[in-house]
Design goal:
368 residues
Amino acid sequence: EQAQWWGDARVQAKNTFYLSADTHLFRRGIRQIGTQELKNGLSYGHAPTIAHTCILPDFTLTWIITHWDYYRQTGDLSLFKSMKERIHRAFGFFRKATGKNGLLPYDNRYWLFLDWSPIFKDGYPTLYNLFYLMALRSAVELFKLSGDSKSARLYASREKNLVSAIKKRLFNDKAGVFYGGLSWNNRPVPEDTAHVFSLAILLDLFPEHHRTFIEKNLLPLVKGKREGRILPSPFFMFYIFEALKKCGHTEEVIDCIERWWGRMVDKGLTTTEEGWDAEPGSSSLCHAWSAHPIIHLSNILLGIWPEKTGWKQVRFSPTFSHANYARGKVATPLGIIEAGWKKTKTRIEVYLNLPPGITGEIALPGKK
């Protein structure tokens, strides 16, 4: 991604982690985005630029979240510590922007992206506020880890207030559904999108409703065809898949990848499209944000799940479906993991080779 669009970069970096474990570009990008600061604390959406049309408040939130991603991959807090004051200033924008109802509103001076899908982006959008919550939670944990308890308490308080506003104003508890957001006069806007429900699962907002969110909002999407509903872009399917994996629906993820990404393969593409059924000459046929099946195939079919910061512990738990065998490698900061399995007439043979410094937990069907 030549322009380093930072919403894209979060997913693209995770792809790179599994391919090479190289964090140099990611670390440099986080620093570059952070130094491209507006007077109000926002950052530009990519680097390098000074274009007003490239200011995306949700990408500033993503930039904060990527400090957590970098720490989880490396165990290194030095980058976060060097950017602490910059992060305070970024949160200052969102603090001032928060409405009397406790929610973040759309600011028509800037481009609120969220996704290419035609989801609700006016008034007080639910998805925007969920990304804000994710950024606050990331910051709380990072400030705790860096020994800054004062800042951790500050953002924990804002997190608590935001959760309260989301639960009070953006969720219909009786029906168990989210609204797309609130209008400017604080009226709920009905909207059924998988975007919101996936982030709610990842944030553990309503654990008692996870099963309903999965069955009513996520599984119908991934089991169906790419039509008839507000369809997430290939980019946002990363978050959909992460929510499904969290709740144990790994086979449905693989099935969706096989059908939806399989159409790219059937067209002879060797790179992934930016949007579904992209037309040559009018949209990108080489867009790394759509390459996240690298992650899901490595987790689900190969069975490699990172469990601890810096990949110091992994769980080996492959799903033995959709294939007669799987084999491959996953790059980590501590070396290459090799794993695989194959079915015979009477059993499934598995192997796992870990480099020094990584411990493994084995969780196979029928075995612990």
